[in-house]
Specification:
The chain is mainly β and about 160 residues long. It contains 1 helix and 16 strands. The protein has a 10-stranded antiparallel beta sheet with strand order 1-15-7-4-3-12-13-14-8-11, covered by helices on one side. It has a 4-stranded antiparallel beta sheet with strand order 2-5-6-16, with no helix packed on it. It is globular.
Length: about 160
């Protein structure tokens, strides 16, 4: 990779990025995204303005899933009266592998950093098309604890317009 930054996830915006590839083997999690933005203060950004990059590979080392949750739903009628509620639910360990494979069709809508005593904690909000009806989505929250992040990309595409 021509550009590479270490432990600067807070200087990259993954909002609205498509996940092209995803793998999680032992303690190494890897995402390939399309549509990420390298922020102006990133150590690898000499343009000093937010810049789109092409594909970006994000590797999280010594990673483990702290929580993996499917977001619930609330259904309201036209008068704003709650009709039905589906609560949030943790994805059970036996089902996680199958759901993680579906992430390659997903889109990240937010990444939230949390403070931990050692290492890093990030929660990825990901919309994934439903298997039975691709027009509808399931929303997952993947909270990952890790010791090191490495992000690499080949080129910048264009500045982010204000």
């Amino acid at each position: 990779m021509k550009f590479q930054c270490v432990n600067e996830l807070n200087q990259i915006c993954f909002d609205d990025s498509n996940i092209l590839e995803f793998s999680f083997l032992e303690d190494r999690m890897e995402f390939t995204f399309n549509g990420a933005v390298i922020k102006a203060k990133n150590s690898q950004n000499s343009r000093y303005q937010d810049m789109f990059c092409g594909e970006i590979l994000l590797r999280l080392e010594n990673a483990r899933i702290a929580r993996f949750m499917k977001e619930g739903l609330k259904y309201y009628d036209a008068n704003g009266m709650l009709q039905r509620e589906i609560p949030d639910e943790d994805v059970p360990a036996p089902a996680q592998e199958a759901v993680l494979k579906r992430l390659t069709k997903g889109t990240v809508f937010t990444v939230v950093e949390d403070t931990v005593e050692t290492g890093y904690a990030y929660e990825f909000g990901i919309d994934v098309p439903k298997e039975e009806e691709e027009e509808e989505i399931d929303t997952y929250w993947l909270c990952v604890l890790f010791e090191k992040s490495v992000a690499g990309w080949e080129r910048y595409q264009s500045p982010v317009s204000e």
